Amino acid sequence: xxxxxxxxxxxxxxxxxxxxxxxxxxxxxxxxxxxxxxxxxxxxxxxxxxxxxxxxxxxxxxxxxxxxxxxxxxxxxxxxxxxxxxxxxxxxxxxxxxxxxxxxxxxxxxxxxxxxxxxxxxxxxxxxxxxxxxxxxxxxxxxxxxxxxxxxxxxxxx
Amino acid sequence: xxxxxxxxxxxxxxxxxxxxxxxxxxxxxxxxxxxxxxxxxxxxxxxxxxxxxxxxxxxxxxxxxxxxxxxxxxxxxxxxxxxxxxxxxxxxxxxxxxxxxxxxxxxxxxxxxxxxxxxxxxxxxxxxxxxxxxxxxxxxxxxxxxxxxxxxxxxxxxxxxxxxxxxxxxxxxxxxxxxxxxxxxxxxxxxxxxxxxxxxxxxxxxxxxxxxxxxxxxxx
Lengths: 158, 220
Hints:
The structure holds two protein chains of two kinds.
Chain A: H1 2-24, E1 32-35, E2 39-41, E3 46-55, E4 60-62, E5 75-78, E6 84-86, E7 90-91, E8 95-99, E9 102-110, E10 113-122, E11 125-135, E12 137-138, E13 147-157
Parallel strand pairs in A: 2-13
Antiparallel strand pairs in A: 1-3, 3-10, 4-9, 4-12, 5-11, 6-10, 7-10, 8-9, 11-13
Chain B: H1 5-51, E1 81-84, E2 89-91, E3 100-105, H2 110-125, E4 132-137, H3 143-153, E5 159-161, H4 166-169, E6 178-182, E7 188-193, H5 198-212
Parallel strand pairs in B: 3-4, 4-5
Antiparallel strand pairs in B: 1-2, 1-5, 3-6, 6-7
Organism (chain A): Granulicella arctica
Keywords (chain A): Signal
InterPro entries (chain A): DsbDN, DsbDN_sf
């Protein structure tokens, strides 16, 4: 419950600052923002750590399962960490998007917020997972080179 | 004749129900109308943004994320020699005397792939004026993958592999597609970033041709 509230608060804060981001920074360094939060999971049991991201307003990134082989999918790579056993990440489903000049081509993208779920079994204590989100963003008319967003996922198992 | 109390109550209830239904219908119609107007406004704004990229020279184009302030317009196009997909060395200087569209693209760039078939079409349409397209793949993908994408798009114009030096020479290609319309004298007459409309692309090609003159010179 607390985790959900924290996520809602983070998302609301981010949404609140979106116009500032769009206006003040003509070309953001990152079009995807990691919404960091502290999470708690039960120790020694199968649990899920959620990793939340927000796509800056006016942009989209390919989902984990874009509809073309040529498009670069969003992928979260997590480094192994002591005391944590991980399974393959589970990604949010994307939604359809078409460029105005070609409504027949449907892309599968993330906009707004999206979540990657990390199934873990962790020993009791605090853990830090080093991870990198690989993504490729576009706006309504142009695409930006693929980027890597390094991040740390913090959680406590108790 | 007095109306029995039961019937009067039923009438009143019916009137109330009809009133509520009427008000609900009006509220719904108002909400629906507002929603439609918002959607129409949103669509119009989207179209406005998309249909006015890189406005031509009068007074200078307004810089936006997808349409930066043109840096090379009116300047000599930076020279380059790159290797094509079929292994040939291709220089911009090879096309001196001809209008050329230099287009930066990548396999992962969906808007790029929308306009490439248009380039192909215009290349055929303006072949008589010596018009040529050079596609430069700003891509980490391997040569085979680039070739596969180009084939799938039906491009027959030369696709060149970047050397990492050509994009800085063209002002740094931060996003794709970016196009440079070069006249026969080797001068950039227009520079665009992001997907434009087919009409705008043709207008820019015509501008490069007009600046060239009507003769076909310096054929391959």
